[in-house]
Design goal:
Helices cover 42% and strands 13% of the residues. The protein is α/β, with parallel strands linked by helices. The protein folds into 2 domains: 8-18 and 92-216, Rossmann fold, CATH 3.40.50; 22-88. Strand 2 (108-115), helix 5 and strand 3 form a beta-alpha-beta unit. Helix 1 (22-35) packs across helix 2.
Length: 217
């Protein structure tokens, strides 16, 4: 048996809280286009804005004669506002098994590909629990480039917690890849929305509930 794990870092969407409804995000992207003078964006451009890379965002912005950073700021604002409304109305909410995290005695954190402001809103508008550190991405093009599978925010969280052997808990391939990039253990949570989800990289552990996390430490 290796050394005891001294921190746990959680992804948020699909792990701590329910995923945001895709139709809500698509409508938020259309609103973001309207905010910069594009009343009828194509479905392809809306889909690109939901899950962009820095290069695909630049292509969409340039195609509409827009400055990419402004395009992204409007996109982020629309997404933050839409998710905040979901949190306020309880449509985006913590999973019941998040209460099991109260049994964890080591420091904990959140590392999300969602916006940092959205993670702040999750903590402010739900009873998901208390965490020692939390990171979402900055609302900038650089923030896009720092998303998982790049381990940028994960590494910052680990450093802030002064952890040497943390556990990362996520529900996607990028979560596993980010953990692997730092040589740390990864637990994959197979929620209902991931029943048919195939991983190309094996996690250290696969669990069905957050109730299993304390047992992994």
């Amino acid at each position: 048996m290796g050394p005891a794990q001294d921190a746990v870092l959680f992804d948020n969407d699909g792990v701590l809280t329910t995923p945001t409804d895709r139709t809500v995000l698509f409508e938020a992207m259309r609103e973001a286009f309207r905010a910069v003078g594009v009343p009828e964006p194509s479905d392809d451009h809306v889909r690109t804005l939901v899950r962009p890379t820095a290069s695909s965002l630049r292509q969409v912005a340039t195609g509409h004669g827009l400055e990419p950073e402004r395009r992204w700021r409007e996109r982020e604002r629309a997404a933050i506002d839409a998710q905040l409304e979901q949190l306020r109305t309880g449509r985006k909410r913590p999973y019941p098994d998040a209460s099991a995290l109260g049994a964890i005695e080591t420091p904990t954190g959140i590392v999300s590909n969602n916006q940092h402001q959205t993670i702040e809103n999750v903590l402010g508008y739900t009873d998901v629990g208390a965490f020692d550190v939390w990171y979402g991405r900055e609302p900038t093009l650089q923030g896009i480039e720092r998303k998982k599978p790049r381990p940028y925010y994960l590494e910052r969280s680990i450093a802030e917690l002064d952890a040497s052997n943390p556990l990362s808990v996520g529900d996607s391939q990028v979560d596993v890849e980010a953990a692997n990039a730092l040589g740390i253990d990864a637990a994959f949570v197979r929620r209902d929305h991931r029943l048919d989800y195939a991983l190309s990289t094996d996690p250290t552990d696969e669990i069905e509930s957050l109730e299993a996390v304390p047992e992994l430490l």
